[in-house]
Amino acid sequence: MDTGRSERTGTKDFRIVTKERIEGTAQRWRRFGEPVPAGGSVKEDGTPDYGIFGPGSMVWQVLLHPATIVFQYAFQGLMQSTYKPVIAGVRDHDPLSRNTRKGTVTIFDLFERGQRNSGMHAPMWLGDTETARRMAKHLHTIHKKVAGDVIDVGAPELGGYAASEPRDAMWAALTEMHSMLWLYENFAFRDGLPPHRLSRAQREQYIAETAAYCRLVGAPEEEIPTSMAELDRLYAKYDDLFGTSKSMAIYPDNGQSFPMQMFGTMKKNFHRSQLPALFYAGVLDHGLFRQLAAGASSGRLRKSLGMGRARSAVAVATLKISLPFIWMMQRGRFERHYMRLMWGPDGVTLIEAARALQKTAGRS
Questions:
Q1: How confident is the model at residue 6 (pLDDT cuts 50, 70, 90)?
Q2: Would the CA dihedral through 274, 81, 7, 264 be positive or negative?
Q3: pLDDT tens digit sequence for 306-341
Q4: Which of 38, 55, 150, 239 stands the most exposed, by the fewest C-beta atoms within 10 Å?
Q5: Interatomic CA distance for residues 71 and 59, integer angstroms
Q6: Spatial distance between the Cα atoms of 27 and 42, rounded to a whole number of angstroms
Q7: Is 83 helix (H, G, I), strand (E, B) or coil?
Q8: Global pTM?
């Protein structure tokens, strides 16, 4: 989902992208001051405040793995691209859309939108309770504006969307958490083995733990899943809201194509200084990384993406031959680079503090 305003400061010409703009300062991700890491404060009873998950949790085991740090945004973006209300919200209200209509959108906007995603979620996943609540409240306030009467002009029976309301808030949270589980099982080299599936008990524990996050964002209590079976039933219940269609891209008010206008304007506003942003956003996050994520996904998800048998087979084959590259990207300096780039300075602090706690708890 949209996580706030797009950054357009630091240069007189909005097209020029400096190294400093690519890296960003803490302010790109930070809201309400420096976040307090889980365990960095105490509850009223004097015990450590570990936030909504904490050390020893399956969520932290999945989230803190280097593979998740590098590929989290690509997997989340791919899964959320099949949930129609999310795409409708981006089309109608995202800074990408607003800047497209103004004629000022650049590839840096696409990069910076993805860059803010992981780092602005980190305080909810890795901060103490008050830090998590403050960020959740901030995002809820922003998302109040992300609402509309039309999800898809080609399917008016779907009705409208409202990012801050219980249904869409729940699915934003579930697609974030489910995509990380799917990422971990398919990309995380661990225990001296190639990527492999968690045990049934571990998967059940993971889904049960995500309920705390769903509650934090305002999901309807009666629908929050606490097991894989309940999550599967929820997907079946809301099946009509998943998938893709050509008409999803059409602005309801003028009948124009959002992506065609956006990429056309990006081309017009291109400047050679934008090449690093093009590499990260276009070549990796929205390109190779998403292709690899598609290959790791279920047949149901690939069908939702509109992929036929041939494209699905290519995606799966690409994943298999890319495992050495995936292994390399979760090693040492590659992971550290992506951690700072995509999670920000505060995110690095939160991750490192949580990893220390998780190590003490006996999980990595």
A1: very low
A2: positive
A3: 899 999 999 999 999 999 999 999 999 999 999 999
A4: 239
A5: 16
A6: 26
A7: strand
A8: 0.93
